[in-house]
Design goal:
Helices cover about 20% and strands about 25% of the residues. With about 775 residues, it is α+β, with helices and mostly antiparallel strands. Helix 1 packs antiparallel against helix 2.
């Protein structure tokens, strides 16, 4: 935890220095955002402003730096962009560090770097600036101390003491009661021995083991690393002293497209001490040259040497960088080897000649000897998808399928290898389908039985032959017979030789309960071979079969395409239901008892009418339409001599008595008027007469029994319908056509009248 806090503090210090000059450094807003995020993370971990300020002052930075950070944090109020600028601080030491990069940033800031076509460069494509050394690990014994490192000493046992201090810029560590101890350039292991020796004079118990001394690394110093050459982000990096070579390679974003991954140089004291081949890490995960960096180390990306493109049927297609003496064999190893369907015996190499391009075919034996000049394209092809020795056998064979053709194998040998022919194989005929040169296909017929018995000359097979053994079922006519009528499962059934009528009825589930099995009808096509059309096509026979499927006469054997019909009993079925609703005692659905049952009989079965029924207005409906007949005659007596016979599905409705007359339409006061036996016009007068827009000549009356009656005309006279209790008078309104003038009907009436008058005058004159 202490080390993580120390890393955060170190981060704040360095980013503060960069933020001081944010207005002059490109990307200053981004630095300000990162600065505030770091400060806020430190606060979330429980560090107070005073603790952060003390660490800043201890490092020699102005005390007001913390105030500038707080201003930015207060302006931001959340993780986001910072609009406020950082106040300028007149500290030359801070400004001098403004162009340095810091690997201890803890934010995950993705780098906008496009995908590279070169192998290994994609490792850096989605790099994040938080790829820093692990500061939570135990202090390595080989760590070399230097100015700025914090050393924590714990004395326990007989004596107890906690000592914390920093190695000064001159390389000395202040040890209480022992003076200044030189620790610059000393490993942790050696420092333990030196400090233990110094403290023994103060705490004698150390020599006897009664007192123990423990040394650990607290805050870690920062070092400066230079990244030069063909680097994506070259410059000076301020990093933790625990940083190793691969940390900075990752931080720097890798090489540019002109940079090399095969020869990355680590320079120390103006000498190249290591050359790193990054392919070893990508290929095998090995970091053999991943050494810890020292202050002022230089990482240099040289320009690439040779590149070769590998494409086709390999596991990783890409552009690879190759060293001297690396061959096609090495290139294929870089790609992870061939794909499963690759043609491995030869590759195609496109290279340059003296003035034009060249194509070379390199055999597998030369893969390890072909050295590259750079710029080649190596293509790995795919094997031919056709089979070298495939034959197929299908049909009535024990184990049909695809087989590998053996040397000089014959048809009989293949049939034997496939388990032989089945019992239902058609023994007289089979064939081999063979593809000939070009697009033609040849069929080679054979006698299956003769081939198997060795009595026919055997046939030598070739690759891609397809052998077919016919089934005897193929040559059986697909005959059928049908049964319909009073059987449980009527339909079409496969015909089998020897099938009888009783067998077909049994296959159809037997007779239904209403089957007239004593008069079964059999229809059979006449096999007339005459070349002249005949009138008689079917032969029809009547059979008598009892319910136990025994014929009362000789049983008949069926032939293909026979049709058997079982009639149904004439009277063994329900006739259907009728509905009765309205003013009857027992509404419901009643089953017809006889074929000539009439309305009145059903009304009587329903208990008769109620005292409120208007029996004269009874209505009958069939298929949702009213039946246009009167149950009562003009004397209001039931017409028993000519009753209405009902059909299944009919509906009867008996309305309730209604002693009112309804007047509606183009009248002044639509209303219900109590029936008084008056005329049509008396009811019109009772509602105030008609409006000016009324079309009285087309008025009509709807009676309670559902019938309608319109107003009739003769010359200039009108005859209005009679009014009954429950009637509805409707006076329609004139349309635009009616309002324009005299109607055609009126003109016709006038013309008829004039013609009649002329005729009368002519007769009288004579």
């Amino acid at each position: 935890m202490n080390r993580l806090l120390a890393t955060l503090l170190s981060c704040i210090i360095v980013i503060s220095a960069m933020a001081q000059s944010a207005t002059t450094v490109k990307g200053g807003d981004a630095l300000q955002t990162q600065l505030v995020n770091t400060y806020l993370k430190a606060k979330q971990m429980g560090m107070s402003d005073t603790e952060i300020k003390n660490q800043l002052v201890k490092r020699g930075y102005p005390a007001n730096t913390i105030n500038e950070i707080k201003k930015l944090a207060q302006t931001k109020q959340a993780y986001g962009s910072v609009s406020a600028s950082v106040s300028s601080v007149n500290d030359t030491s801070l400004k001098a560090q403004s162009n340095k990069r810091d690997s201890s940033w803890i934010f995950k800031t993705p780098l906008e770097k496009p995908l590279s076509p070169y192998y290994g460069y994609g490792f850096f494509t989605e790099a994040f600036l938080d790829y820093a050394p692990n500061t939570n690990m135990a202090t390595p014994e080989s760590y070399i101390l230097g100015p700025g490192d914090q050393i924590n000493i714990s004395v326990t046992g007989l004596n107890s003491k906690e000592i914390t201090g920093y190695i000064s810029a001159e390389g000395y560590y202040s040890l209480p009661y022992s003076g200044m101890v030189p620790l610059n350039g000393v490993s942790i292991e050696a420092a333990k021995k030196i400090i233990k020796q110094k403290l023994t004079k103060i705490y004698p118990g150390i020599a006897t083991g009664a007192t123990q001394v423990y040394l650990s690394l607290g805050e870690i110093r920062t070092i400066q690393i230079m990244v030069t050459g063909e680097a994506s982000r070259s410059g000076t990096y301020v990093v933790s002293s625990l940083t190793n070579l691969f940390n900075v390679l990752y931080l720097s974003g890798g090489p540019t497209e002109n940079g090399s991954l095969r020869k990355i140089q680590l320079i120390r004291n103006n000498k190249v001490i290591k050359e790193i081949d990054f392919y070893e890490f990508i290929q095998n995960g090995l970091m053999k040259n991943n050494i810890r960096l020292e202050d002022q180390d230089v990482i240099h990306y040289v320009v690439y040497g040779k590149r070769v493109k590998l494409e086709g049927q390999v596991k990783t297609e890409s552009i690879y960088e190759v060293k001297e003496n690396e061959t096609i064999k090495d290139l294929i190893a870089f790609a992870g080897g061939f794909k499963e369907d690759a043609y491995t015996k030869q590759v195609t190499v496109k290279t340059k000649g003296e003035s034009q391009l060249l194509v070379k075919n390199v055999l597998a034996n030369d893969y390890a000897n072909y050295a590259f000049i750079g710029g080649e394209v190596v293509s790995v092809g795919m094997i031919d998808q056709h089979y070298e020795n495939r034959v197929n056998i299908a049909g009535e064979i024990a184990r049909p399928g695809v087989y590998g053709l053996l040397k000089d194998e014959t048809l009989k040998q293949l049939i034997t290898r496939a388990g032989g022919v089945r019992e239902d194989a058609f023994s007289n005929r089979g064939y081999i389908q063979r593809k000939m040169p070009g697009l033609s296909v040849q069929m080679l017929p054979f006698d299956t039985k003769q081939i198997v018995a060795g009595k026919q000359e055997d046939i030598l097979l070739v690759k891609n032959d397809s052998v077919v053994i016919y089934s005897s079922n193929t040559f059986i006519n697909n005959s059928f017979v049908t049964v319909s009528g009073g059987v449980k499962n009527p339909g079409t059934y496969n015909f089998t030789k020897g099938m009888k009528v009783e067998d077909l009825i049994a296959m159809a589930g037997g007779f239904t309960i209403d089957a007239a099995y004593y008069k079964v009808e059999l229809s059979r096509l006449e096999k007339n071979k005459s070349e002249v059309l005949t009138n008689q096509v079917l032969e029809r026979r009547k059979l008598s079969i009892d319910s136990t499927l025994h014929t009362t006469n000789e049983s008949v054997t069926l032939e293909s395409f026979d049709d058997v019909f079982v009639p149904r009993l004439l009277n063994y079925r329900l006739l259907g239901n009728v509905k009765i609703r309205g003013e009857v005692l027992y509404e419901g659905d009643y089953t017809l008892e006889k074929r000539d049952e009439n309305v009145l009989e059903v009304v009587e079965r329903a208990g008769g009418i109620t005292p409120f029924a208007s029996i004269a207005d009874i209505q009958v409906f069939r298929n949702e339409l009213r039946v246009g007949t009167d149950i009562f005659n003009s004397s209001m007596v039931m017409q028993k001599n000519d009753p209405l016979l009902l059909l299944p599905g009919d509906s009867i409705y008996i309305p309730r008595k209604n002693n009112f007359v309804s007047v509606r339409g183009s009248v002044y006061n639509e209303q219900l008027i109590e029936y008084n036996g008056g005329s049509f016009m008396s009811y019109i007068s009772a509602v105030g007469g008609t409006k000016s827009t009324a079309l009285l000549g087309k008025s009509y009356v709807q009676y309670p029994n559902g019938k309608y009656k319109k107003t009739n005309h003769f010359l200039f006279m009108r005859f209005y319908p009679r009014i009954k209790p429950g009637s509805k008078i409707v006076v329609p309104e004139k349309t635009l056509t009616d309002m324009k003038g005299i109607s055609v009907q009126d003109v016709t009436s006038v013309a008829t009248l004039l013609t009649s008058l002329v005729a009368i005058f002519s007769i009288l004159k004579k």
